[in-house]
Amino acid sequence: MCIEALSFMACMEILDPERCERVNEIAEVDVWINDLVALPFEFFKRIIGSLRRQGMKEKYVTPIIVLYASNWILFSKRSAEIDSNSASMLQSILDLLALRGRGSRAVPMGFYFTLLSKSIELGLGNDNKAKLQDQRATLLQFAQVEGYLYPEKRSSDSSSISSSEEVIVMEEIFYGYVMSSASHTPSTSGSLVAELWNYYLSHIVSDPKMEPKRFTELLETTPISWRQSHDQLYRAINSFHQAHQDLNHDEKAAVCKYLNCQKLSQEACVEAVQNDMLPLRLIVEILFIQ
């Protein structure tokens, strides 16, 4: 009865049209919601269940869960010590979140990537990570590059960061988007996703341990035909060249094989013709186009 009463009061507070609709805004002025997210998880879980039974919309319920996860797991000093309790709580929060349907739209894109990162850190099972990956793949065109998963640089690690779990997860998310597309023909959303992937590659290909073959594999994660502009593709290739200045002619040609000079902007062309890391054939082709 106490749980139902608290839930009813919460519904009245949030559903009042005179009040803010966003839970994080309410939290700034209402003590009750801060008290709610400070509760032990089992008690919090029961209140969330009651809120849903009383008909509260997921667009209100989900942000409360996001706030709770942020306080207890993601951005809290409590998570400094990684233990089985943290992993268990994160698992329970994932079960509590609506990862399908309209409720999933109330979860910020960056929050999903943060959940993925924490899932990797805590060693959660592949099933949980797969659910989060699938969710991100469906709305990938709305993501921000800054929120993506980036591998930590470890001086003691002799392997390439391209084999890190973070990069592999990102690769699977983008590949999942490609596979879920109705066709592999260029589209506005597809072009945007390919551009986002190029930006991501630009951040990770400076790893000197990445092999040319692996770089090419990463480029192929999204169809080359989706790239309406090749400016960012050129920058990713240039970043790879800068970190691998000992490439031979054949390796340079392999790395650049997807670069279409006719899809470069004037600014990129001016930069490219002065780039002595590019194969001579490409430089001549760019000069001819200009």
Structure description:
The chain has 290 residues and is mainly α. The protein folds into two domains: 1-126; 187-290, no CATH class. It is built from 15 helices and no strands. It starts with a helix and ends with a helix.
Question: What is the helix content?
Answer: 55-70%
Q: Rg, please?
A: 23 Å
- Which of globular, elongated, flat, extended, rod-shaped describes the shape? elongated
Main sheet makeup: none
Compute the average pLDDT: 79
How many domains? The number is 2
- Which structural class is indicated by helix and strand composition? mainly alpha
Low-pLDDT parts are 15-23
For the structure shown, list the relevant keywords.
290 residues, mainly alpha, 2 domains, 15 helices, 60% helix, elongated
Provide a short characterization of the protein structure.
By secondary structure, this protein is an all-alpha fold. The protein has helices at 2-15, 23-29, 31-36, 41-53, 58-74, 84-96, 109-122, 126-138, 165-180, 188-204, 212-219, 231-243, 249-255, 266-272, 280-289.
